[in-house]
Amino acid sequence: EITGSAEILDIFKVSKVGKVAGSKVLNGEINQDSSARIIRDGTVIFNGKIGSIFREKNQVKQVNEGLECGISLKDFNDFQIKDIIEAYKSKTTERQILS
């Protein structure tokens, strides 16, 4: 279930964090505890977890549509401008037997 997506506008190097994607949230919201995938030219190139989200140098839990933020992902640094970060939550649904 997709909760939000953001486009990478710029890339910053932060000493303790590594690379941070300066992004603008296009729709929905990006939550710190969400999973995320990087989409480049229509292809998913990475699937993982969000490391941290920053707004004006303060760490935040979520960022809503229309706002800009810095997003770092766990185990991923190969950001490129114009990549899309898509945040999602996995939802487990139990199988039902129809009789």
Describe, in short, the structure shown.
This protein is mostly beta strands. It has no helices and 8 strands. It is elongated.
Task: Give the tags.
single chain, 99 residues, mainly beta, six-stranded antiparallel beta barrel
What does the model show?
By secondary structure, this protein is mainly beta. The chain has no helices and 8 strands. It has strands at 2-14, 18-31, 35-40, 43-55, 58-60, 62-64, 68-73, 84-88. Strands 1-2-7-4-3-8 form a 6-stranded antiparallel β-barrel. A hairpin with a 3-residue loop joins strand 1 (2-14) and strand 2 (18-31). It starts with a strand and ends in an 11-residue tail after the last strand. The model has no long low-confidence stretch (mean pLDDT 92).
Q: On the 0-100 scale, what is the average pLDDT?
A: 92
- Residue stretches low in confidence (pLDDT < 50, at least 5 long) are none
Strand portion = over 45%
Percent range of helical residues = under 10%
Secondary structure category: mainly beta
Order of helices and strands: EEEEEEEE
Number of strands: 8
Biggest beta-sheet profile: 6 strands, antiparallel, barrel
Rg is 14 Å
Distance between the termini: 28 Å
Strand order of the largest sheet: 1-2-7-4-3-8
- Summed up, the helix count is 0
Rough outline: elongated
